């Protein structure tokens, strides 16, 4: 059943094509563009989601020049066809978040962004703690994020930026362009553009101090920000500087045992219970979603998982006992458990569960320093310099212990075994048994610490000049940026050392030693994993050396850009405007892993940090328990030029006015070759009061990034099925320099009703979007590549040799095989009014925005698969509905804001067939499931502010007022079981602060 709030929101959607937040100019100026479509620059009116813009005194609003982030055109009366939503500084302040990133991700069009609550179970993915934005669920790599219209050096090898490294206090507006913009801005703008616009002429001083914590007395944090600006030399020299510090302590792992951290009782060990396909002919579903899932391949301190002693667990001091399986399960002696479906039982002894041991939120620290210095050469020309330093450090535990799922072999001669087990081994005539353990005896959890440090410098010039009797504007700049990422992981074990340490024997002198003489000679210290016993510090130092995985990455970006725009001539319906420019960009990265991870032998046998160990693989590496720490490097350059035109078509009292917007960009990549992108759009301000139509179609591109082109090579041994036989192959993971750009076709059509005379203060818009991406770059499994080759794909066949025993290999790399398509509509509204007519004080503002995903279809291009539609799958990033609504009351010094965030009900997966009895035989393409319904969520936030004086403001914010729990997300391995991309996983959060400025 839907809540009353949900029903109300749906009713609003039906009644007025739903409500969507507009930029403040929605509430102002019937004869000018609403703020959702325009971004004022210089002396233009300041737009805001909060309310009406204030016309500047310099020139009347009707002649103001407008620059729009979705376009390069800056011209009088220009209305762009691409929908753009702007968040003003006032909007950002009302959100009262410690990071602007968290405010933006609440916008419905932002789906699939990464932050400090995502990827907390990852060790070396490179995106841990990375605040990166994703539009339309198309991924962070298909969303272009800009700072003052300029590219920013990527924060990892995929090229995506880290918003947390941006200067945020000086941001006066954030423009979100929800449509393809490659023709205007270049590669990556497939889903759209997010542009952070700073206040370049800020004068005075302002500061912000904020503290906060959750209801559960954790994730305590503090933010301190300050900015200063002043003009010198008769206002020709302007200097601006800002500094920011944010610390959020995160939510630590509660450890092993299947409980939520700090009193969060919602954790349920959710998982899929999955029957084998060949057993689904009985009319019952293959999948069931279960709670209190118990993995039966290990226990907290050790469990025998096969043979006649299966079901024997070990407790304090290594004392054996009979393990309590859930589901009334009984061990069979073959590794299976009756009444349980591999690998889970339900209930029983959950003390060894590691699923809840992942941090809910990372410990997070950001430090940013920024300055801009500009000098007016004359009244029309300015030179400037900006410098930015941003460091973001995260810390978290991906999981407690280091679970071994029944993949250990313990010899009956192991001296750590109790006498009763030795006797049972002899009685049952066995010499070894299979064993699994959560390794709860480990003294420390794995600790991952990525630190990103950005240094970015820009030198530029901007101004105006006269040519052919017209005034033209230009901007030119060069920028150099570097991001250095240090990834340090501590308390990580080395697999081969662990295996050698647990395989102990008693020496003739009675001492317990490692069985392997090579290991013993190189420093192996025996480790007792039979039950709960203190870990010998020497054994821990051997299996988890202090010089745990290390990775050092440097990414650099150099850009040179020149742009000019102006009016070519006055046409019959207005000025014909043009913007044109050229850009050169060079991207480069270099990564170096540690010797144990990369596989490079230390230079000297006396290397103190990574001593030579004959037990380890010094050729391939991959010695650590988890993660990929290999060397890699690569670079590419880009040359491009573009032109954009705005052509007024007609302007009359009878027909209204319309304009045509055209753009073309030609790009040459040193790796991927040449590619073109274009845009064609139009707007029509109809003669109907306040009604405007807009539409745009575009070809957009995303070039392969450094990671896809030059992935760090990894080589391991594997097997594949080929021509009916199982053959051994060498699996080689590398980049693919032959990748081509992804090509997208972006179509949108919208209706805007802005400020009609019969409804002053009211605006609403509805925009339909349809994005198709072909040649999507994606990686395949080794077996998928072999199957595609057998099916006749010659490009894939060139990546392998399968008919040379002893020399067979398969090269795993990215290919342009997949495709994506997403379609849906955005709805947006705002209404602002005074309350005098109701004899009430103050002003009231209602605004809301929502995105309805109709389809999100992925076709992997793999043999034996079909396209999958993820729209409405709440385990993914694209729910059917995502809505943000807000109501604000303001009076004199006081302001109160109530916010609702809603995610609609959905499914676990859309390819499931839901049935309880009489089910068809389950297949890989269409598996069956007992219940395929996953609840959505409604969250309420409350905030307010009080102006003590003109200089001082106090404010507060409570997020997730009702402390709504996240919905459980079943996993095949019983990990944390949440989806932080859609649901609030932190709980009720309190924040308070003060802002001071003059």
Automatic annotation (TrEMBL):
Protein topology in the membrane: Multi-pass membrane protein
Xref: Pfam families: Plug, TonB_dep_Rec_b-barrel
Primary location recorded for the protein, binned into one broad class: membrane
Coiled coil feature spans: none
Subcellular location: Cell outer membrane
Gene3D superfamilies: TonB-dependent receptor, beta-barrel domain, TonB-dependent receptor, plug domain
GO CC annotation terms, alphabetical: cell outer membrane
Superkingdom in the source lineage: Bacteria
Keywords for this protein: Cell outer membrane, Membrane, Receptor, Signal, TonB box, Transmembrane, Transmembrane beta strand, Transport
Keyword Disulfide bond in record: no
Family note: Belongs to the TonB-dependent receptor family.
Protein name: Outer membrane receptor protein involved in Fe transport
